[in-house]
Amino acid sequence: MSYLVYARKWRPQVFEDVVGQDHVTATLKNAILSDRVAHAYLFSGPRGVGKTTTARVFAKALNCQVSDKPVVMPCNKCESCIEITEGRSLDVIEIDGASNRGIDEIRQLRENVKFAPSKGRYKVYIIDEVHQITADGFNALLKTLEEPPAYVKFIFATTHKHKIIPTIISRCQRFDFKKVSTQELVDKLKDISAKEKLTINEEALFLIARAADGSVRDAESLLDQVASFSDQKVRTEDVVSMLGSVEQEIFFQAAQMIIDKNSDKSLQLINKFINDGKDLFQFTGGLMEHFRNLAVAKVQKDPAGLIDLPKDVVEKILSQSKKIELADVIYCFNVLNNAQELMRKSGLARIQLEIAMIKLVYRDSQKAKQQVQTQAVYRPAVAVAVKTVVAPEPPRTVSRNVTDNNTVVNYVASPMEDTNVAIAVEEKPVIEGRIITIEDVQSAWQYVLNGVKSEKISAALFLMEGMPSRMEGVSVVVDFPQQYIFYKEALERNENRCIIEKYLKSALNSDIRVKFVIVDGIVEKPKQEESLAPKADVIAPVQLKAQEKKVLQQNHTEPIVESAVEIFRARIIRKD
């Protein structure tokens, strides 16, 4: 007899064997006991969590011959149960939705529905990946699905419920299967290992369960692969080697080096990791998860259930968490998170990770604490302000400051500005209970300019000619003189607007939109001698030569030329 993989060999045969889906199996058993079995069911959820398996067990329970009516515990010994288990029952028809998705196949199914079951009480149609059926196929099935013969039951299984048309969903009883927890997977793997006489420790089981990501079938397949790899005696090193994962001990070592501020060993650890052919992204992600676990251990007296690791490892995390402050833990997590993003963007994964480790090792705990507190204070929120609108007034002249040199602009307000509605509700971003004002934006404006320049010099040069003047809800209004309408139109392009709004959010930690307007009579700002030199924490991706910088400053009034220089990396010969 050919070899049978674990996923098939240890497939559940009764409801009690189905792992992690008690909310589904309990409902189905109660439906059988109360004689309230519906004509159509829809099982949806991630892959490998037991949708088709539960459908088979349900079909066996309906047709089991141990009793004259459906049972909640199939005997798995009668002819009907054996045929369903072996997949050769004429009354339980399993259909692949991907290869039987057209209207012709559905018409054939409708014709077969008319025939009564050959042996059992019910003819059960199990259609896997039902979302693959075409819209025409679904429509052809609607009437049969709504009013099938009394002896027909439909069970649909899918990983993409949202792709099924609503008229089909409304005719079914829906059950949402969930991912299986790591601990439940470990318990299942322990049971299989005992039956297969495998020697394997709990840490290795946890590595397999976490790699399965909530899928029982994936976990069983990985265990099967590990058993073949290790010849009945599985070590943690074998699992790590096969999965290409990182041992938990590595993360403890790295965290301890950061706690002890040991730069030499931390960089040597990264070097060894690279020489061993490991994935730096996996290391960074695993270290981030380790600091997350440390944070949980700092704020939870009993982190059981929140950290998916063996008990001895959790105890070790609790012990290590006592050696580091919570603010340092959060700071380390944020630095690693930023490093991971830069690793993807720059393509220099090793350099970015090494710089991040140096930053963590040489951190100033007091500054880290202040930084975390600042991030907690400047959190995004939305306040709703109610503005009462007065009755129409005659046109009036309003004065306001729009530039840094206190230039006053007069404009005539329309009498219709305040007469649309009696009460207006506007959303305004707030900082810790305080509404963000235009003064907040103006104080952060230089940071925004520097940030924009680091990504796109031309956009920063255009933006220099404008000035944030007021807030309109969650939008900051930037005024431009009439002669700079070209700048306004250029900045309104989606790519430029997104860059500006990104640095506004970075500066104020709140989602703020930007709006560009032309204001008649606004006085052009005097040219500033200083250029948009980036701050220490903003590094331009393309460094211009000193001579080109000087030429750019001399031609500051011609941004189109500067854009051409930036795009083509050109050099200006002369200016006519």
Task: Explain what this protein looks like in three dimensions.
- The chain has 576 residues and is α/β, with parallel strands linked by helices.
- The protein folds into four domains: 6-176, Rossmann fold, CATH 3.40.50.300; 182-243, Helicase, Ruva Protein, domain 3 (Orthogonal Bundle), CATH 1.10.8; 248-376, Up-down Bundle (Zinc Finger, Delta Prime, domain 3); 385-541, GMP Synthetase, Chain A, domain 3 (2-Layer Sandwich), CATH 3.30.300.180.
- The chain is 49% helix and 14% strand.
- The chain has helices spanning 6-9, 22-33, 51-63, 79-86, 103-113, 135-146, 166-169, 182-196, 202-212, 216-230, 236-243, 248-260, 263-275, 280-299, 311-321, 326-346, 349-361, 365-377, 438-443, 445-455, 457-464, 485-491, 494-508, 546-554, 559-568; strands at 40-44, 92-96, 123-128, 152-158, 173-176, 199-200, 233-234, 382-388, 396-401, 408-413, 423-431, 434-435, 467-472, 475-480, 513-518.
- The strands form five sheets. A five-stranded parallel β-sheet has the order 2-3-4-1-5, covered by helices on one side.
- The longest helix has 21 residues, at 326-346.
- It is globular and about 90 Å long.
- The termini are far apart.
- Mean pLDDT is 80; it is low at 376-426 and 527-552.
Short description:
The protein has helices at residues 6-9, 22-33, 51-63, 79-86, 103-113, 135-146, 166-169, 182-196, 202-212, 216-230, 236-243, 248-260, 263-275, 280-299, 311-321, 326-346, 349-361, 365-377, 438-443, 445-455, 457-464, 485-491, 494-508, 546-554, 559-568, and strands at residues 40-44, 92-96, 123-128, 152-158, 173-176, 199-200, 233-234, 382-388, 396-401, 408-413, 423-431, 434-435, 467-472, 475-480, 513-518. It is α/β, with parallel strands linked by helices and 576 residues long.
